[in-house]
Design a protein that fits this description.
Layout: H1 3-28, H2 45-62, H3 64-73, E1 82-85, E2 91-94, H4 102-112, E3 116-122, E4 124-134, E5 140-148, H5 150-155, H6 157-196, H7 205-210, H8 214-264, H9 271-297, E6 301-302, E7 307-310, H10 311-328, E8 332-334, E9 341-344, H11 346-362, E10 369-377, E11 382-388, H12 413-417, H13 423-433, E12 437-442, E13 448-455, H14 462-465, E14 472-473
Parallel strand pairs: 6-14, 8-10
Antiparallel strand pairs: 1-2, 1-5, 3-4, 4-5, 7-9, 10-11, 11-13, 12-13
Helix pairs in contact: 1-6, 2-3, 8-9, 9-13, 10-11, 11-13
Length: 476
Amino acid sequence: MKLFWKIFLCFWLATILMLAFGLGMREMIPVKFLRETDTDSVFESDAAKAALTAGATAYEAAGPDAAASAVRSALIMAHRRFFLFSEDGVLLAGNERPPNFFGPLAKTIAHRGGDEMARYFGFGFRMFYICPIQSASGHRYMAILAVFEPGERVLRLRFWFNLTVGMIPAALVCIALSLYITRPISRLRKTAQRLASGDLSARASPLGTRRNDEVGDMARDFDTMAARIEVLMSAQRRFVADVSHELGAPLTRMHLALALLRRQFAEKNSSEIDRIERETDKLSNLVQQLLLLAGLEAGVCPAETLAPVSVRSLCENIIDDESFEAAQANCQITGEREDVVIEAYPQLLRRAIDNVVRNAIRYSPPGSEVRLDCRVDEESRHVIFDVIDSGSGVPESMLSDIFKPFFRTAPGRESKSGGTGLGLAIAHEAVRLHDGTIDAFNRKSGGLHVTISLPLRTASTENDLRSPRLSANTLQ
């Protein structure tokens, strides 16, 4: 059954149950229920007729105002509207202007004789008591008394009791319908989040196989889309890895040929050979980074095992290596670093932090500082690395994209600065393999702030970090 009909039938069923339970309570519970707190729940026609007769007598003695006062003085008549008509339907007295049909109604019932209860289905439900009365002098009149009006229903406890009882089955049906609709959508949303986070195997298959409505169709279409994305992404990664691997052998031969060529022209200073060598080195570096990135995206850690790593020593070694590049850019690397030992892949973690620091140096203005801080968050049990520069930052709309391969905030920006657009992508994958996170945001004072957060795992928790996707393997 389609979801439209399920929703329609559920609301229809809820309405029927609400009416059935409400009317059922009215029939099953005695009329005098809650009478102690609802004194107007029972209308006594004899007492009302006596009060109306007194009003007619007062009308003959002192006029319409006296009639209204006499009727209001009776306890049962308090706050009720009443109207006094002649047997011909002419209004004689009343506490307000009556509806136009009251006159003809009084005349009609006078001809019938006897008391009657009339219902008026106008704006809300109204009930009127219409009766012939005779004053002390013997004159006959027709009186109309408002027995029940919409405002009184709202003030009655019994009305709210019946409404509450009637709402219970409707509420249960609506809750069941809401869960039936929202729970599979929530599961589908979680599956979509897994797919967006990089888990290309995420599927909504159980949800799609059990339902034949629109939600089930959406789940099956989602699985088809996810399978197609997985095939395309796997083909892309395999293509990059295969091409990079195939380029490795020709590049090795080119290096050997360059070495022989330089030996042959050892006595000559050839700028052409120097240029070829520089471009070949760039191409070799690009191929190596592509191979590394392809392996990291596949969950393969390059040829190393977990080992205790002192984060302070690691940061100081990175600063020593990058000091020359910072000096060339007229920058200085500073910061404060706490010392803690964690279990990690030493070279992979070093490369991740080093790539972020080099990126900060590359885009920092001359004479500025690049900070590399390391601290321990005891509350979340994480080690946090902060790399802060004073550059121009990144447009807010692009902050989530800078960790994608070959992403450039401006055309040719990385190529002009000597970058390949893979450094931050490699850092992102390296941090992910450590079950950590890497984020970037712009500083209010200017510059980019990159934060790397890693779980605080020591030697005692080494087994928690080891998993099939983190097994040490050599990239081919």
